[in-house]
Amino acid sequence: MERVLVNIPSNPVFERVVRATTDEVGRAIDLTQEQIEDLKLAVSEAVNNAIEHGNKLASQKLVEVTFVLDSEQLEVRIRDEGAGIDEIDFSRRVVEEQNLEDGMHRGFGMYLIRALVDFCEVTSSQGGTTLTLRLYRKRQDHE
Amino acid sequence: MSDVIRREEFGEVAVLHITTNSVDAISAAAIEATATATAMRPITVLDFSNVAFINSAGISALLKFVVTSRKAGHKLFAMNVTAHHQKIFKMVEMSRFMPTIEERDLATYR
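ok -> structure tokens follow
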């Protein structure tokens, strides 16, 4: 098992650092390009949530991203230092006429995460929230 | 017109070339700021040829173009969209409001 650890301040510009790391890790373990693109988007959404909703953009609070690689899967844990959450809504969100008229143009992130990775799980306490994503490496054997 | 959009116009068509490679939380505000009625024409095309990454913050910014074009009664299209981004647009049903066209389809307007 190998680990890659990235800590970033809660400034959205550093989400790009995590995204670049995700790209490199995906290439290092020979994920397909499509898997890498899916994972980059899922991690991007999770990190932005941690920065904005978890740490409330408080730059002194860190978002910790841990990539755990083994022969079976790549696991990515995104942890914030926020006050915790009761629940996360992973339900499908799409662009709808009513949303456009109401100016509600956000909320696709959690749906995309759930749809793009093989597994996701949220654990939360008053000390922060961790979102765990998994991509099974066997998927590429079938392609 | 901005550091993230380069505008080209011919006849009834405006092509808005997105020049940033990342349509995300960082570039979203600048992209949204260009989604004005004056930037658009009856046929407005967003060119994604330089775009390597789009996330939900970026999609939210792009929806401003959808809203503005609908209010003006204009048609909005996307071109040079990667297969991955076409998949994402379909997942959130963005493609219903901003269908993809081919660059060659614009030739008749030039």
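The first strand of chain B starts at residue 5 and ends at 10.
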